Recover the amino acids of this structure.
């Protein structure tokens, strides 16, 4: 598409203005350290910016695409920015989730001292600006710059409490994997520009769209993109940074990283695969589907055995990314098979799930953050009973937990339903072997969804229900009004995305049209979602919700009217056992124990069990990722070994160093003059 | 109000009212098979009446969730009963939710029950919740696989269309449905807390799954849960009938077929209840850690059913 010069106020310009606004907010925070009152305004203003960004995204979704070229960047390659439907959708996702999270952050960070608050505001808004620019970038250079801004600012956010060694270690791991991924992306863009090394213009996305790649190089580019974006998204086996970085980061940052940043990787993958590469191969889809399903199951199994609530949520993010990638793989399979309508359905499901995940994972991380703030405890084995002291946080988190568990009528169910429908439509595929794989894939998705419910019952039940497991927890306080407002926004998103799927799908349709060339046809009315055909499948969440509500009310009124509402409070019965205490409830470890037992082949379990004569019996169980030992430990050992060998070259004697330089010079001369 | 909605309400109310009767029938059959003198058929109604009249006793630390959950569970089960074609096919509420959504409704009720069980913070409550979720994480996908097999045959996840295809089109034997039927039986025993996965009449707390979760409930809350349990059994039976022996369910708008449909339902329910109690009487409860194996088998059978469909029936 040629670069169209549009009227003065195109959506992309508003979006860029929003980026500049966030940058200005971030940097002005550094100068406002003496004016605490003004400093407190930074986060609410940032939240307003996010809301505006969501509005710009909506405008871009409904209107035409727009592009600008900025006078910054390399001399021959200025920044190209472009806002089309795909970017617009992810802007809506970013703005919508970031509004709630930033509002929450304005309350969450209020107790930081001034210097730290200013730094936090700087990195936070830089992070938002970086993510937005990733979505807007229309050339490889701007993309990589924005990608790095995003990675580095989030690194500094993760290591906010850098005085703790664990957190520094988590941050390092994150930085390392982010950069291995970034190198892969750089190579990917190098392949995509098709060999015109001298030509800077070849690095614009516009050029890449028109470049004709041989199937082999297209596959190389896809694999590099899958690896690079997979490292950011948390695809197994590049997922190891997520369960480390998310617990280390402050909760609003975890919410943004998990809810939004992981989605920028999905955006990148969609952009490269469907927009920049012209030819797609069928096996890419099978590969992505397989990897996605492995990721989903791996993530959810490990989520079930965690005791740290933020680590549990991080593993659950890995699961959701796996589901999204499985959807991506299925889309590719349908797309390369010439089944445009089915590709449209699957793409809708995956985009819907990405949108949903931004809201419910944002909500769950902010909820976990509120608990952490109130109790100072991340370990679920020390929590419990918070429903009674923090009712707002508890009920709002419950909405998020039910949504992520895929229960109707909330939003998680809709995307899962669409994805399962897509699996059921596969018998039309031309490759028979795929027809056999698909049932297994559908079964894996169903299994992951059911396990997600297990995980969420554990997360909510152990944290918020039961009796407090440590005395500090009983004195917890409710989150402040700004935190509650932020969570309320995210919870409202979960409910509305669940109740109005037809409207959401109508919003998604320009993106689906842009990428697959077809839209999803809704056979139902505005109330009823019926992809493909109303005879085939339909779901009307609003009717569903209304009927549940009416039935609830009728039952309640009938019970009260026909009988009575008498109630007496007493001690818990517990089968008459008089000496129960908080430690007799299931711990987080205990609740996950069946899953650990069933899937212990995947885990490396370290256990410390007391013997009967211990005076102070202590039980410790730790389920660790086996891939860490199988994949990362050897790589780390190899790197250490290599650097040890290379280190022998350095012994501090100047004459040897001179000989090195001399030898290098001779070698290069031979090499150049040959 | 048009007849469709009236029929819908009538069918749902019928399910709600008849559910304890089915429970009574199953209990009676089982008592006979075990050589005990059976309680009267209407015993479940008497129990419910007694419970509703009692004063509710609730733990000091119970949260509002604990009191809300029984209503939610009952409403979910009533909804599920309204969704399954029991007497008449293609009722007006059925497009609101298909088979996958039905699984979701069951899951919603289950999650609320498990959460309510964890609310008081007693050892048996959390134990029950954990076990229930353990059983369901395999039972739920297995049930989905059963539905998937049926919907691959009928090209639809709408229960009315499935029933329409299986009952009112030409008679075809689907080998895949045989696998699905076995998987469905295994899932329904697990989901309805029957032997071999759970024992509804156990008095030994350590072996309980479902009963352990509702130990803290009393009076009207307990009554609602017990009623919901009966309704769940009824709905699962109706579901089994609709999927595997759907003949007799009246097509939409065919009032002449209605008396026959009632008769067919009664006969099938009586036979189904007797079969259930017979199968319970001849099997032993499995150890808890054998339950995942049992359900894993069900899950695999469901997947096999789908594969068989692709191999033999496409």
């Amino acid at each position: 598409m040629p670069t169209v010069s549009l009227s003065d106020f195109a959506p992309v310009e508003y979006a860029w203005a929003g980026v500049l606004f966030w940058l200005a907010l971030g940097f002005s925070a550094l100068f406002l350290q003496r004016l605490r009152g003004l400093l407190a305004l930074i986060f609410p203003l940032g939240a307003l910016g996010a809301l505006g960004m969501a509005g710009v995204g909506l405008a871009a979704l409904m209107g035409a695409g727009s592009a600008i070229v900025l006078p910054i960047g390399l001399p021959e390659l200025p920044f190209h920015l472009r806002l089309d439907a795909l970017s617009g959708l992810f802007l809506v996702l970013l703005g919508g989730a970031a509004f709630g999270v930033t509002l929450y952050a304005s309350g969450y960070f209020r107790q930081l001292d001034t210097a730290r608050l200013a730094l936090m505001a700087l990195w936070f808004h830089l992070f938002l600006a970086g993510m937005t620019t990733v979505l807007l970038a229309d050339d490889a250079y701007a993309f990589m710059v924005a990608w790095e801004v995003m990675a580095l600012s989030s690194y500094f956010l993760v290591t906010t409490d850098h005085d703790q060694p664990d957190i520094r270690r988590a941050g390092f791991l994150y930085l390392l994997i982010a950069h291995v991924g970034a190198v892969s992306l750089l190579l990917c863009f190098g392949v995509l520009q098709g060999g015109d090394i001298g030509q800077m213009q070849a690095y614009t996305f516009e050029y890449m769209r028109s470049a004709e790649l041989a199937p082999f190089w297209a596959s190389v580019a896809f694999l590099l993109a899958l690896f690079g974006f997979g490292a950011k998204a948390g695809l197994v086996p590049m997922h190891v940074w997520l369960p480390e970085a998310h617990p280390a980061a402050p909760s609003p940052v975890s919410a943004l990283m998990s809810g939004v940043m992981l989605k920028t990787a999905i955006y990148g993958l969609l952009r490269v695969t469907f927009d920049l590469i012209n030819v797609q191969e069928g096996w890419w889809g099978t590969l992505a589907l397989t990897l996605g399903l492995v990721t989903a199951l791996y993530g959810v199994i490990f989520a079930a055995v965690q005791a740290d609530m933020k680590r549990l949520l991080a593993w659950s993010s890995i699961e959701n990314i796996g589901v999204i990638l499985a959807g991506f793989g299925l889309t590719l399979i349908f797309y390369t098979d010439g089944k445009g309508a089915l590709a449209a359905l699957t793409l809708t499901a995956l985009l819907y799930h990405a949108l949903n995940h931004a809201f419910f994972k944002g909500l769950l991380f902010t909820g976990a953050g509120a608990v952490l703030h109130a109790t100072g405890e991340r370990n679920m084995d020390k929590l419990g009973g918070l429903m009674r002291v923090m009712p707002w946080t508890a009920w709002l988190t419950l909405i998020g937990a039910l949504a992520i568990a895929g229960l109707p009528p909330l939003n998680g169910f809709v995307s899962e339903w669409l994805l399962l429908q897509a699996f059921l439509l596969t018998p039309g595929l031309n490759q028979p072997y795929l027809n056999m794989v698909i049932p297994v894939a559908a079964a894996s998705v169903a299994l992951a969804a059911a396990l997600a419910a297990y995980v969420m019952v554990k997360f909510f039940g152990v944290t918020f229900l039961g009796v407090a497991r440590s005395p500090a927890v009983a004195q917890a306080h409710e989150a402040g009004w700004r935190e509650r407002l932020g969570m309320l926004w995210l919870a409202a998103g979960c409910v509305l995305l669940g109740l109005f799927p037809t409207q959401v799908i109508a919003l998604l349709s320009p993106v689906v049209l842009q990428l697959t060339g077809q839209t999803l046809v809704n056979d139902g009315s505005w109330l009823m979602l019926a992809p493909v055909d109303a005879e085939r499948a339909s779901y009307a969440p609003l009717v569903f919700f209304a009927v549940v509500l009416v039935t609830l009310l009728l039952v309640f009124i009938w019970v009260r009217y026909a009988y009575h509402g008498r109630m007496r409070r007493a001690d818990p019965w517990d089968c008459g056992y008089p000496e129960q205490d908080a430690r007799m409830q299931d711990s987080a470890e205990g609740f996950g124990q069946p899953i650990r037992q069933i899937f212990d082949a995947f885990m490396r379990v370290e256990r410390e069990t007391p013997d009967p004569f211990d005076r102070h019996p202590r039980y410790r169980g730790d389920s660790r990722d086996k891939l860490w030992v199988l994949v990362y430990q050897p790589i780390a050992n190899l790197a250490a070994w290599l650097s040890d060998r290379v280190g022998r070259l350095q012994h501090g004697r100047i004459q040897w160093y001179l000989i090195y330089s001399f030898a290098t010079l001779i070698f290069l001369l031979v090499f150049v003059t040959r | 109000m048009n007849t469709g909605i009236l029929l819908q309400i009538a069918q749902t109310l019928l399910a709600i009212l008849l559910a304890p009767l089915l429970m009574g029938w199953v209990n009676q059959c089982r008592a006979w098979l075990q050589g005990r003198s059976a309680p009267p058929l209407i015993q479940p109604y008497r129990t419910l009446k007694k419970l509703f009249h009692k004063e509710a006793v609730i733990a000091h630390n119970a949260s509002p969730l604990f009191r809300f959950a029984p209503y939610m569970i009952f409403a979910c089960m009533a909804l599920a009963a309204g969704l399954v074609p029991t007497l008449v096919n293609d009722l007006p509420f059925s497009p609101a939710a298909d088979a996958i959504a039905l699984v979701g409704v069951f899951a919603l009720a289950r999650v609320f029950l498990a959460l309510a069980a964890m609310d008081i913070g007693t050892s048996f409550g959390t134990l029950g919740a954990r076990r229930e979720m353990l059983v369901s994480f395999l039972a739920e996908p297995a049930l989905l696989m059963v539905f998937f097999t049926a919907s691959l045959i009928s090209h639809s996840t709408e229960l009315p269309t499935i029933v329409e295809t299986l009952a009112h089109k030409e008679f075809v034997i689907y080998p895949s449905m045989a696998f699905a039927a076995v998987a469905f039986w295994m899932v329904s025993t697990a989901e309805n807390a029957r032997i071999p996965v759970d024992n509804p009449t156990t008095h030994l707390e350590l072996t309980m799954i479902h009963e352990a979760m509702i130990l803290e409930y009393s009076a009207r809350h307990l009554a609602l849960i017990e009623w919901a349990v009966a309704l769940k059994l009824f709905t699962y039976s109706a579901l089994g009938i609709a999927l595997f022996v759907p003949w007799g369910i009246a097509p939409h708008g065919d009032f002449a077929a209605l008396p026959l449909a009632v008769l067919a339902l009664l006969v099938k329910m009586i036979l189904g209840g007797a079969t259930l109690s017979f199968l319970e009487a001849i099997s032993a409860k499995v150890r808890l850690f054998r339950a995942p194996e049992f359900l894993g088998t069900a899950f695999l059978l469901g997947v096999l059913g789908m594969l068989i469909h692709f191999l033999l029936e496409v």
